[in-house]
Amino acid sequence: MAIALRWMMCLLVLATPIRIVHAQSQDAQDVDPQFDRPGISFASWSLPAGSVAWEQGLPDATWQHDGEAHVFQAVADSHLRIGMGHGLELQLIGSPYAFQRLSGGGSRQNAHGQGDGALALKWTPTAPSAAWSWAVLGTHKLASGDATFGTQGRAEQLAVTVTRSLDGNQSLTGSVARDLQASGNGWLTSLSYGFPIGSRVAGYLQAGSGSGVDRTRVAGGGVTMLLRHRVQLDGWLLRGLDRNSPDWQAGFGVSMALTRGR
User: Fold this and answer.
1) Domains and CATH numbers, the chain
2) Which backbone phi and psi does 124 adopt, to 5 degrees?
3) pTM for this structure?
4) Do the Cβ atoms of 214 and 187 come closer than 8 Å?
């Protein structure tokens, strides 16, 4: 299973340039895609039927220290999103490459491998007002990762995100997620404020808090830049606010609308 997932991700990456050329030849007047990257939460919009999007971390990283021990981890998360119509969206998720460095006490250990794969289904019901949107996302992780980076036993998550559009292309987004894992359960909530910086550049501020297996407190933000209408670049940074959280989390990524759909 792990080898199959890795090769699937590699083949999809190799096919991306061809699909981007096709996507860019489509009508440039269609609506800008709503990507899930970046942030703790996810977009409260699903892709229309026939649309396909690729979202790739380049990578996303964490830094944490506990006494003399320092841990650095970088993961290249990949999301393939497929619009199915009627507000439904299928997501194929994988981490084809991950790296970890553990140092302290005069020693250093490096580990390379891959993280778990996952299957997810997003549903976006019709909101009662154009100013509001919301979505539900259910995720089932596949125990396909290496020991250092994978999840042991079952792992499922059910999450809800709600967005309130404000004047001037601003927005408020709140989310709550319930994690069910073999090692325990947890809750994770987040609140973010999005705002425009330019015609193609936007920023956001975000805070997150979790309990149980998700015990954490973080705050930060990020920036996105939309290129050629269908390609988005992003950068983000989170600061841990307590000893249960990584000191820093940061990442760069690219998201691409591969096909327009209908």
Assistant:
1) 2-259 (2.40.160.40)
2) -115, 100
3) 0.84
4) yes
Kindly report, residue by residue over 86-132, the tens digit of the pLDDT.
999 999 999 989 999 999 877 889 999 888 899 999 999 988 899 99
Q: How far is CA 101 from the centre of its chain?
A: 23
Please identify which residue in the block is written with the tokens 């940074």: 237
Q: pLDDT averaged over consecutive 10-residue blocks of the chain (262 residues)?
A: 40 37 38 87 94 96 90 96 96 94 88 91 92 97 76 88 96 97 93 96 98 95 92 98 94 93 64
All residues at 6 or more sequence positions from 60 whose CB lies less than 8 Å from its CB, including other chains: 74, 75, 76, 77, 249, 250, 251, 253
Q: Would you put residue 197 in left (φ > 0), alpha (ψ -120 to 50) or beta? A: alpha
Query: Which letter does DSSP use for residue 169 in this model?
Result: G
